[in-house]
Amino acid sequence: MKALEADRLGKRYRTRWALREATFELPAGARCALVGPNGAGKTTLLNLVTGLLAPTTGGIRVLGRPLELSRVAFVAQDKPLYRRWSVADLLRFGAATNPRWDRHAATSFLHAYDIPVRERADRLSGGQRTLVALALAAGKRADLLVLDEPLAELDPLARLQVMDVVRGLDATVLLSSHILADLAGVCDHLILLGAGRVRLCGAFTDLLASRPATTMEDLVLDHLRNPGLPR
Ligand SMILES: Nc1ncnc2c1ncn2[C@@H]1O[C@H](COP(=O)(O)OP(=O)(O)OP(=O)(O)O)[C@@H](O)[C@H]1O
After folding, report:
1. How far is the CA of 39 from the centre of ligand 1 (A)?
2. Ligand 1 pocket, residue 161 CB under 6 Å
3. What is the ipTM score, two decimals?
Protein backbone atom coordinates (compact mmCIF):
# COMPACT_ATOMS: atom_id res chain seq x y z
CA MET A 1 0.00 0.00 0.00
CA LYS A 2 1.31 3.44 -0.94
CA ALA A 3 1.04 5.96 1.88
CA LEU A 4 1.96 8.94 -0.27
CA GLU A 5 2.05 9.44 -4.03
CA ALA A 6 3.14 12.69 -5.65
CA ASP A 7 2.57 13.10 -9.36
CA ARG A 8 4.34 15.93 -11.20
CA LEU A 9 3.88 18.09 -8.12
CA GLY A 10 5.01 21.66 -8.67
CA LYS A 11 4.81 25.12 -7.11
CA ARG A 12 5.66 28.33 -8.94
CA TYR A 13 5.94 31.78 -7.35
CA ARG A 14 5.53 34.35 -10.14
CA THR A 15 8.16 33.23 -12.64
CA ARG A 16 10.21 31.10 -10.24
CA TRP A 17 9.62 27.41 -9.57
CA ALA A 18 10.16 26.47 -5.91
CA LEU A 19 9.40 22.84 -6.75
CA ARG A 20 9.08 21.28 -10.17
CA GLU A 21 7.82 17.94 -11.53
CA ALA A 22 8.18 16.10 -8.20
CA THR A 23 7.06 12.54 -8.74
CA PHE A 24 7.65 9.94 -6.02
CA GLU A 25 5.90 7.48 -3.77
CA LEU A 26 6.33 6.24 -0.21
CA PRO A 27 5.11 2.86 1.04
CA ALA A 28 3.00 2.74 4.19
CA GLY A 29 5.20 2.64 7.27
CA ALA A 30 8.19 4.32 5.59
CA ARG A 31 10.35 6.72 7.59
CA CYS A 32 11.51 9.10 4.90
CA ALA A 33 14.22 11.74 5.24
CA LEU A 34 13.68 14.80 3.06
CA VAL A 35 17.03 16.50 2.55
CA GLY A 36 18.63 19.09 0.30
CA PRO A 37 20.50 22.38 0.45
CA ASN A 38 18.92 25.65 1.64
CA GLY A 39 16.28 26.77 -0.82
CA ALA A 40 16.00 23.33 -2.47
CA GLY A 41 12.24 23.23 -1.96
CA LYS A 42 11.82 21.08 1.16
CA THR A 43 9.41 23.33 3.05
CA THR A 44 7.47 23.94 -0.18
CA LEU A 45 7.10 20.19 -0.69
CA LEU A 46 5.98 19.64 2.92
CA ASN A 47 3.47 22.50 2.67
CA LEU A 48 2.04 20.95 -0.50
CA VAL A 49 1.82 17.50 1.10
CA THR A 50 -0.04 18.92 4.11
CA GLY A 51 -2.42 21.06 2.05
CA LEU A 52 -1.04 24.38 3.35
CA LEU A 53 -0.12 25.34 -0.22
CA ALA A 54 -2.06 24.69 -3.39
CA PRO A 55 0.05 23.14 -6.16
CA THR A 56 0.62 24.91 -9.46
CA THR A 57 0.87 21.52 -11.19
CA GLY A 58 0.17 17.90 -10.31
CA GLY A 59 -1.19 16.54 -7.07
CA ILE A 60 -0.82 14.05 -4.25
CA ARG A 61 -2.71 11.05 -2.92
CA VAL A 62 -2.59 9.75 0.64
CA LEU A 63 -3.34 6.05 1.04
CA GLY A 64 -4.74 5.98 -2.48
CA ARG A 65 -7.15 8.86 -1.96
CA PRO A 66 -7.05 12.62 -2.51
CA LEU A 67 -5.57 14.50 0.45
CA GLU A 68 -7.79 14.58 3.56
CA LEU A 69 -6.44 16.83 6.29
CA SER A 70 -7.68 14.52 9.05
CA ARG A 71 -5.26 11.85 7.79
CA VAL A 72 -2.16 14.06 7.91
CA ALA A 73 -0.45 15.62 10.93
CA PHE A 74 2.09 18.40 10.51
CA VAL A 75 4.74 19.60 12.92
CA ALA A 76 5.86 22.89 11.36
CA GLN A 77 9.36 24.33 11.65
CA ASP A 78 8.42 26.82 14.40
CA LYS A 79 6.15 24.33 16.24
CA PRO A 80 3.35 26.86 16.68
CA LEU A 81 1.76 25.47 19.80
CA TYR A 82 -0.62 27.83 21.57
CA ARG A 83 2.20 29.06 23.75
CA ARG A 84 0.19 30.40 26.68
CA TRP A 85 -1.67 27.13 27.08
CA SER A 86 -0.43 24.40 29.36
CA VAL A 87 0.51 21.01 27.93
CA ALA A 88 -2.64 19.58 29.56
CA ASP A 89 -4.76 22.27 27.81
CA LEU A 90 -3.17 21.37 24.48
CA LEU A 91 -3.94 17.69 25.04
CA ARG A 92 -7.56 18.51 25.93
CA PHE A 93 -7.81 20.62 22.77
CA GLY A 94 -6.40 17.70 20.75
CA ALA A 95 -8.99 15.36 22.25
CA ALA A 96 -11.86 17.78 21.57
CA THR A 97 -10.94 18.47 17.95
CA ASN A 98 -9.85 15.04 16.69
CA PRO A 99 -12.50 12.33 16.33
CA ARG A 100 -9.82 9.59 16.28
CA TRP A 101 -7.93 10.96 19.32
CA ASP A 102 -5.74 8.35 21.04
CA ARG A 103 -4.93 9.55 24.55
CA HIS A 104 -2.42 6.80 25.22
CA ALA A 105 -0.48 7.47 22.00
CA ALA A 106 -0.36 11.16 22.90
CA THR A 107 0.69 10.88 26.52
CA SER A 108 2.88 7.79 26.75
CA PHE A 109 6.19 9.38 25.76
CA LEU A 110 5.42 12.67 27.51
CA HIS A 111 5.50 10.72 30.75
CA ALA A 112 8.56 8.79 29.62
CA TYR A 113 10.45 12.06 29.08
CA ASP A 114 9.09 13.78 32.19
CA ILE A 115 7.36 16.59 30.31
CA PRO A 116 5.53 18.66 32.95
CA VAL A 117 1.93 18.63 31.69
CA ARG A 118 0.84 21.54 33.91
CA GLU A 119 3.54 23.82 32.47
CA ARG A 120 2.76 26.46 29.86
CA ALA A 121 4.13 25.67 26.40
CA ASP A 122 6.15 28.91 26.29
CA ARG A 123 8.03 27.85 29.44
CA LEU A 124 9.22 24.56 27.95
CA SER A 125 12.60 24.02 26.30
CA GLY A 126 12.80 23.67 22.51
CA GLY A 127 13.21 19.90 22.81
CA GLN A 128 10.24 19.61 25.19
CA ARG A 129 8.09 21.72 22.83
CA THR A 130 9.03 19.43 19.94
CA LEU A 131 8.00 16.39 22.00
CA VAL A 132 4.65 18.04 22.83
CA ALA A 133 4.07 18.81 19.14
CA LEU A 134 4.87 15.17 18.34
CA ALA A 135 2.50 14.01 21.11
CA LEU A 136 -0.35 16.02 19.58
CA ALA A 137 0.46 14.56 16.16
CA ALA A 138 0.62 11.01 17.59
CA GLY A 139 -2.70 11.47 19.40
CA LYS A 140 -4.35 12.52 16.15
CA ARG A 141 -3.63 8.99 14.84
CA ALA A 142 -2.74 10.41 11.44
CA ASP A 143 -1.71 8.01 8.68
CA LEU A 144 0.98 10.41 7.50
CA LEU A 145 3.10 12.48 9.83
CA VAL A 146 5.02 15.38 8.30
CA LEU A 147 7.81 17.07 10.28
CA ASP A 148 9.63 20.18 9.08
CA GLU A 149 13.09 20.43 10.67
CA PRO A 150 12.12 18.81 13.99
CA LEU A 151 15.78 18.68 15.07
CA ALA A 152 16.67 22.32 14.43
CA GLU A 153 18.12 24.08 17.47
CA LEU A 154 17.99 20.97 19.66
CA ASP A 155 20.95 19.76 21.71
CA PRO A 156 22.31 16.25 21.00
CA LEU A 157 20.34 14.58 23.83
CA ALA A 158 17.06 16.24 22.81
CA ARG A 159 17.72 15.20 19.19
CA LEU A 160 18.17 11.59 20.32
CA GLN A 161 14.92 11.74 22.30
CA VAL A 162 12.98 13.20 19.39
CA MET A 163 14.35 10.64 16.93
CA ASP A 164 13.57 7.85 19.41
CA VAL A 165 9.96 9.02 19.51
CA VAL A 166 9.81 9.29 15.70
CA ARG A 167 11.14 5.71 15.43
CA GLY A 168 8.30 4.44 17.62
CA LEU A 169 5.44 6.29 15.91
CA ASP A 170 2.78 4.20 14.25
CA ALA A 171 2.53 6.18 10.99
CA THR A 172 4.31 6.87 7.75
CA VAL A 173 6.73 9.70 8.46
CA LEU A 174 8.18 12.32 6.12
CA LEU A 175 10.68 14.58 7.85
CA SER A 176 13.06 17.24 6.65
CA SER A 177 16.38 17.93 8.30
CA HIS A 178 19.90 19.13 7.62
CA ILE A 179 21.29 16.86 10.36
CA LEU A 180 22.03 13.84 8.22
CA ALA A 181 23.86 11.80 10.85
CA ASP A 182 20.80 11.84 13.13
CA LEU A 183 18.47 10.67 10.37
CA ALA A 184 20.47 7.62 9.41
CA GLY A 185 19.46 5.45 12.36
CA VAL A 186 15.77 6.22 11.96
CA CYS A 187 14.96 6.74 8.28
CA ASP A 188 14.73 3.93 5.73
CA HIS A 189 13.78 6.10 2.74
CA LEU A 190 15.32 9.20 1.25
CA ILE A 191 14.16 12.06 -0.95
CA LEU A 192 16.96 14.39 -1.99
CA LEU A 193 15.91 17.71 -3.51
CA GLY A 194 18.21 20.02 -5.42
CA ALA A 195 17.15 23.33 -6.99
CA GLY A 196 13.48 22.43 -6.78
CA ARG A 197 13.84 18.99 -8.40
CA VAL A 198 13.84 15.45 -6.97
CA ARG A 199 17.45 14.30 -7.40
CA LEU A 200 17.18 10.96 -5.58
CA CYS A 201 14.26 9.03 -4.17
CA GLY A 202 13.78 5.53 -2.85
CA ALA A 203 14.46 2.98 -0.16
CA PHE A 204 17.82 3.69 1.34
CA THR A 205 19.13 0.14 0.80
CA ASP A 206 18.15 0.27 -2.91
CA LEU A 207 19.79 3.67 -3.36
CA LEU A 208 23.02 2.39 -1.81
CA ALA A 209 23.05 -0.97 -3.61
CA SER A 210 24.87 0.19 -6.75
CA ARG A 211 26.94 2.99 -5.28
CA PRO A 212 30.27 3.32 -3.55
CA ALA A 213 28.72 5.39 -0.72
CA THR A 214 27.97 3.40 2.42
CA THR A 215 26.05 5.92 4.51
CA MET A 216 23.17 8.26 3.89
CA GLU A 217 25.48 11.17 4.61
CA ASP A 218 28.02 10.07 1.94
CA LEU A 219 25.28 9.44 -0.59
CA VAL A 220 23.77 12.88 -0.12
CA LEU A 221 27.13 14.65 -0.07
CA ASP A 222 28.23 12.84 -3.26
CA HIS A 223 25.11 14.07 -5.00
CA LEU A 224 25.40 17.61 -3.74
CA ARG A 225 29.04 17.79 -4.89
CA ASN A 226 28.33 16.09 -8.24
CA PRO A 227 24.76 16.92 -9.23
CA GLY A 228 25.25 15.09 -12.56
CA LEU A 229 25.53 11.66 -10.87
CA PRO A 230 23.02 9.03 -12.06
CA ARG A 231 19.86 8.80 -10.00
N1 LIG B 1 6.28 32.64 -0.52
C2 LIG B 1 7.30 32.60 -1.40
N3 LIG B 1 7.40 33.49 -2.40
C4 LIG B 1 8.41 33.44 -3.29
N5 LIG B 1 9.39 32.50 -3.28
C6 LIG B 1 9.34 31.59 -2.30
C7 LIG B 1 8.30 31.57 -1.32
N8 LIG B 1 8.53 30.53 -0.48
C9 LIG B 1 9.64 29.93 -0.92
N10 LIG B 1 10.12 30.56 -2.01
C11 LIG B 1 11.33 30.19 -2.77
O12 LIG B 1 11.22 28.84 -3.13
C13 LIG B 1 12.48 28.17 -3.02
C14 LIG B 1 12.34 26.97 -2.11
O15 LIG B 1 12.11 27.43 -0.77
P16 LIG B 1 11.88 26.42 0.45
O17 LIG B 1 11.60 27.24 1.65
O18 LIG B 1 10.88 25.40 0.05
O19 LIG B 1 13.33 25.75 0.56
P20 LIG B 1 13.93 24.81 1.71
O21 LIG B 1 14.61 23.65 1.02
O22 LIG B 1 12.89 24.48 2.72
O23 LIG B 1 15.03 25.75 2.34
P24 LIG B 1 15.69 25.79 3.83
O25 LIG B 1 16.50 24.53 3.98
O26 LIG B 1 16.56 27.01 3.78
O27 LIG B 1 14.58 25.91 4.83
C28 LIG B 1 13.48 29.21 -2.55
O29 LIG B 1 14.14 29.74 -3.67
C30 LIG B 1 12.59 30.27 -1.92
O31 LIG B 1 13.18 31.55 -2.01
Report:
1. 5
2. no
3. 0.97
